[in-house]
Amino acid sequence: MKVYSGMAAEIPISQVAGYAQRVEGLGYDGLRVAETVHDGMLLAGLALDHTTSLRVSTAVVVAFPRSPMVTAIAAWDLQALSGGRFGLGLGTQIKQNIEGRFSVPWEAPIERMEEYVAAVRAIWQAFGEGGPLDFQGEHYRFSRLQPFFNPGPINHPDIPVLLGGVNPRICELAGRVADGFITHPTNASARFVAERIKPGLDSAGREVELIVSPPLITGADQRALSRAREYQRRKLGFLYSTPAYGPSLELYGWDDVGDRLRALARSGRWDDMAEVITDDMLDALVPQGTYDEIAGVLLDAYGGLTSSIGINPPDDPAEDGAVAEIIRALQAG
Predict the structure, then answer these.
(1) Is residue 185 a contact partner of residue 215, using CB atoms and an 8 Å limit?
(2) Beta strands 135-136; 86-91: pairing state
(3) Could you write out the DSSP letters of every residue in 258-280?
(4) What integer pLDDT is reported at residue 294 of this predicted model?
């Protein structure tokens, strides 16, 4: 099994290079960098420039505020910089963020993403072959690439494209057009992966890497597990107040939980959200066990569903040795 690390959204930009080197030293197969408070392409560039073997992918950059040309150029440069270690992870984001945060129209997100991926690949082909560029779609049209603006071929032109998401249609789209799919932590239980994600990914009969990134409750001892449990309770309470992240609640018959959390959000009662996430919910949604146990827990839960798993380094670097053992156990599993 391949093991990927994520990276906390709040990490200062000045610490990204050191974090990537730490991840590489622990033996991870790859690092996934999110786009929340920093630019995902910039983070990927820092991580790639300060490592030598680690694969780095965006997980995910928000596609629609970027022209496919802008994305294609950045990805091409990162692939050249790293000698072929970059993966382009793309996401649609939700309507409220696309319109209100990025001031970009929201329309036909699945159809638009399918066209986006095709446009990026057409641009890459023109870069590698020297043009001409002629892509005509409903949402994107590219017909001009003068030699002056063409960066030219690179040694590793086949850049993996990964999609992230939750709902069945994005899973089906990834099954048709992507090289990989990254789960969202709110919808990554083994049951959800088996019943909602895998059917869509497998529907086209193509091989698509599935990277499952569940939230985890783990630590060196029971006291650490208790702290991690309450952290996940608070985090999931906040995340499930977003309707787009509700499919797991629906699957498990907890629709009322989403309604209660959204009511708290409208009232600004953010601190009360954790109380809505019960122990039974945590047990169903979040794999848990001490450092000595968690590799076995993950292999039992996901071993038959995926060959790629996400698990982050510990907050305390003093525990890196224990997590390196977990990584090796998963890779051997």
Answers:
(1) yes
(2) unpaired
(3) HHHHHHHHHTT-GGGGGGGS-HH
(4) 98
